[in-house]
Amino acid sequence: MKKKYIAISLLASAFMFAGCSDSFLEVQSPTQEPAGEYFSTKEHVEEAVVAAYDPLHWTDWAMGEYNPYTLMSDIMADDFWVGGANKNDNQNWHLMMNFEATPLKVIAGLWTDAYSGVKRCNDVLEYIPNLTDASADDIKYMQAQVLVLRAFYYNWLWKFWGNVPYFSVNLTYPYLAEQISADALYENMVTDLEDALAMNVLPMQEKAANYGRVTKAMAYMLYAEVVMYQNDSSRYSTALGYMKEIIGSGLYSLAPDYTKIFIEEGEWISESIYEINYKSENAVRDWGAPLAAGGTALPTLISPNNWPDGADGHKSGGWGFCPLRKETYDRYSADDARRDATCWNAGAVGVEYARRYQDTGFFLEKYVARDGGNDGQKASGELNYNYNWRIYRYSEVLLNAAELLVTTGGSSAEAKTYLNMVRKRAGLTTELEATIDNILEERHLEFVGEGKRYWDLIRSGKASAVLVPDEYGYRTNTWSASKKYLPIPQSEIDKAQGTLTQNNY
Fold first, then answer.
1. How far apart are CA 276 and CA 269, in angstroms?
2. pLDDT, tens digit, 9 for 90 and up, residues 316-342
3. Per residue in 369-405, pLDDT tens?
4. Angle, CA 387 vertex, CA 336 and CA 329 arms, to 5°
5. Is 404 exposed, middle or buried (0-12, 13-18, 19+ CB in 10 A)?
6. Cα–Cα distance between 171 and 152 in angstroms, integer?
């Protein structure tokens, strides 16, 4: 089912990014006629809509960098080390982990990926007035998708860099946009989400043929994420209403077995609110074509180096980045099903592999490389694993609702129910009261490796107390408020011709 969506994405990316030969596409290239004429039909604008989804897939490997956006936040938190060959291997990661990134050593590729997504969303909004054969609902549906996607891409920029150039209409020469404050960008993202939701055309849940497209539930989750990160209490009641609407829809539920969520059979199950689709069958992503449709490089990045194929549950090897800290494993109780579904204790298996820098023996089970995980690919196996990234899950709906109930003075009993539903699914029988600390700790245990922890520490005011020097000498600096936003890449400062102010990192 996800294969159909990715195949369409390949076609659209050929139109929207680099072009391709007529013999491959079997259609006329839009470069042979004015774009305004080509994108005047529903069919062709739909190609542009699908192309707007493509940059979601790029952050693990594109623009000459490995920047899987979920792990780029996790390495700044307290669950992972960076690993690799040494502290100069993916040096920008190591510098970010120690809160000493520089404009020349920062994840510049993620910046480019995000703005590529913004540009493609703006393309669709520009083409829509040219449509000659689309109904009002068709137009609204296309608009709603790209408005939500645009907010999603700006969310990357907002969280990592804060004060960034903003444009809602694509730029013309000399391609300079006004740099706005993080607070102003937040308001623009919320406006996009509100406008998309007001169109009332997004389904609460998609059908299988459209898995990977934006839904109302996904937009609700993004809204709650940015509102809660902003600590915008004026919108908490709206965010809570959205969480309750998802819960009350009856369309989503907790998967009964946490250990099955992150295998292929766990993709787009009842728990899944939103995933980024990847596939290996007929995948053509390669070193010379990182933007081509296919799989993900994430399992290769985070699996133990030179692991013998097939050992310990049919695992495969990788490059040894992002080993889990032993403290992460120890944080779980022995009866918590999430422990072994999250933390692979490879060091205890008795299998020889190449232990790299900061190796603890523990790796992220959720996305570890497995034999057969890249079957059917037609380019580079390292880049084409068939694993969807889980972005929003129903457990987060419940924990969001619990937290928002507490912060708005709502029903403590209801909040406690939501919190303990998540705990019970993990096999824990002791019920906890729904305090903010308990909810945050449950999020910590539930979402290791899913890109939530770092932002939770910042928004809760706990970052400066938790993100401190460690006993191993890997992290020697303490997080401070000046570290909230990364340095803007120097390449972007240079291209901006004096119009960008560097972050005070």
1. 14
2. 999 999 999 999 999 999 999 999 999
3. 999 999 999 999 999 999 999 999 999 999 999 999 9
4. 25
5. buried
6. 20
Query: How far is 120 from 116, CA to CA, in rounded Å?
Result: 6
- Which ranges of 85-181 would DSSP assign to H, the alpha helix? 91-97, 108-127, 136-160
CA distances from 192 to 124, 135, 154, 159 (A): 14, 22, 11, 17
The DSSP string of 386-445 is --PEEEEEHHHHHHHHHHHHHHTT--HHHHHHHHHHHHHHTT--------HHHHHHHHHH
Work out the number of other CB atoms within 10 angstroms of the CB of residue 320: 25
d(CA 462, CA 345): 29
Q: Name the strand (E) or helix (H) holding 275.
A: strand 272-276
Q: What is the reported pLDDT for 20?
A: 30
Tokens describing residue 19: 């072009």
pTM: 0.94
- Which helix (H) or strand (E) is 180 found in, with range? strand 179-180
Tell me how far apart the alpha carbons of residues 505 and 483 are, in angstroms, rounded to a whole number.
Answer: 5
Alpha carbons 120 and 53: distance in angstroms, whole number? 8
